[in-house]
Amino acid sequence: MLYLYFPEDKSEYIPALISFAIFLIFCILTFRWIIKYSKKEELRTKELEEQIKQNLDETGRKR
Q1: Helix/strand/coil for 6
Q2: How far is residue 43's CA from residue 48's CA, in Å, rounded to a whole number?
Q3: Rounded Cα distance, 2 and 42, in Å
Q4: DSSP conformational letter for 12
Q5: Using an 8 Å Cβ cutoff, are 8 and 2 in contact?
Q6: CA–CA separation, 25 vs 12, rounded Å?
Q7: pLDDT at 62
Q8: Cα dist from 25 to 17, 21, 31, whole Å
Q9: d(CA 36, CA 29)
Q10: Which of 7, 42, 45, 52 could pair with 12 in a Cys bridge, judged by C-beta atoms 3.0 to 4.6 Å apart?
Q11: What percent of the chain has pLDDT over 90?
Q12: Confidence tier at 15 by pLDDT (50, 70, 90)
C-alpha cells in the first residue's frame, strides 16, 4: 500500500505553498507573454496579407 505523509505540524506546508505560489506566478506571467506575442504576430500577419493583396492587385492591373 502506498504511504502518504500528512504532517501533524501544519507549518511544514509553508515551503510547499511558497514554491507553489512562485511557480503559479511564473506560469501566469508566461501565459500573458504568450498572448501578447501572439497578438503582435497576428498584426504582422495581417499587414503582410495586405501587402500581398496590394502587390497582386497592382500586377494584375498592369497586364
Answers
A1: coil
A2: 9
A3: 49
A4: G
A5: no
A6: 21
A7: 55
A8: 12, 6, 10
A9: 11
A10: 7
A11: 68
A12: very high
